[in-house]
TrEMBL record, chains A, B:
HAMAP family: Guanylate_kinase (MF_00328). Pfam families: Guanylate_kin. GO terms for molecular function: GMP kinase activity. Its EC number is 2.7.4.8. The gene is gmk. It is found in: Cytoplasm. Belongs to the guanylate kinase family. Keywords: ATP-binding, Cytoplasm, Kinase, Nucleotide-binding, Transferase. This is Guanylate kinase. Gene3D superfamilies: Guanylate Kinase phosphate binding domain, P-loop containing nucleotide triphosphate hydrolases.
Length: 210, 210
């Protein structure tokens, strides 16, 4: 129905559960191409090279920046994260949908280059939930907790730059909402009007002339 | 999540299958309140008063118009159709979603009064399909067929006044797309920003101040 690939950007405050939702979403949408970020941060337990991230040294990351190989990049809590450009642009050009799971800084950079992307702001259901998730991750010092918690409050003000807000109350429900958003966007009139108007109108005109 | 009811308008060219899709959609969305139109046309086989339509005489319909009891009304192929206003306004005010299944003239009248409604343009998958559906209905004279077929061609130009275009290739698929559109719209940032920004931001501010 739709002719060009959708760029779907799943973003939101730190601790909203972007990674968990993205991991749960993938097996339910096998046609969705999920971009893998490059990062300078150390792998967490269970994370694998080329699956969760491309793990890079600071020097390697800097080279990617200099060669303009990153669609967006940002420094978050002292580490660098970036989205390799080629993967995204190749799939979109081939009419395939691409999902980016990135932080807010990165999403706003992507929006400047892809204003027609679908920007989804994932939020935790409550502040308590946000706090318990950050603490529950168990990888935070008190200082880094304060940094993240304060950032989450500040980050909420960016919601109005997004198209959709999805509450991550239950991961399955959040995934269902995201699938609905993608399906709805595939039906949006601005994305489809050229496709329908011309061939269909022409067909109708020649029919009704007979 | 959302505070005010959504007004969903399912519309499109004659013969697209609006009635069939609406009938199939209802049991899958029990929370959706489907407005029942008033009409002066004679009941078709299987149609019941107060279920498919409120069947009215021309005099009764005229009285409803004069008392401003109709949200929209139109004359289509010699019969009058209208949407009773009170049903729609009462449900929306109570925060409930309402679906209208109406022709294009009616939809454009509703859009002027409810610009924030969700306007869905249902189209048949092909011209052949449109033709066979109109003929297959078996209630048309050749003259009324020509009228309907010509109108369908002209009606397609209104697609750009709608938010979504849904192809009615298979009724189940069309229903799934409509459910996705409704769920996506419930997540739209403009519909939710006030709800989230204020209580959540205030909560975060007081938390981070402690």
């Amino acid at each position: 129905m739709i002719q060009t690939g959708l760029l779907i950007v799943l973003s939101g405050p730190s601790g909203a559960g972007k990674g968990t939702v993205c991991t749960a979403l993938r097996p339910t949408m096998p046609d969705l191409n999920v971009s893998i970020s490059a990062t300078t941060r150390a792998p967490r337990s269970g994370e694998a090279e080329g699956v969760n991230y491309f793990f890079k040294s600071r020097e390697q990351f800097q080279e990617m920046v200099e060669r303009d190989e990153l669609l967006e990049w940002a420094q978050v809590y002292g580490n660098f994260y970036g989205t390799p450009r080629k993967y995204v642009e190749d799939f979109l050009a081939a009419g395939k949908d691409v999902l980016l799971e990135i932080d807010i800084q990165g999403a706003l950079q992507v929006k400047r280059q892809f204003p027609n992307g679908v920007f989804i702001f994932l939020i935790p259901p409550s502040l308590e939930e946000l706090r318990s998730r950050i603490i529950g991750r168990g990888t935070e010092t008190e200082e880094s907790f304060r940094l993240r918690f304060g950032a989450a409050a500040g980050e909420l003000k960016y919601m109005d730059q997004y198209d959709y807000v999805v509450v991550n109350d239950r991961v399955d429900d959040a995934c269902r909402r995201i699938r609905s958003i993608i399906e709805a966007e595939r039906c949006s009139v601005p994305r489809n009007i050229d496709f329908y108007r011309h061939p269909f109108q022409n067909e109708l005109k020649s029919e009704t002339r007979n």
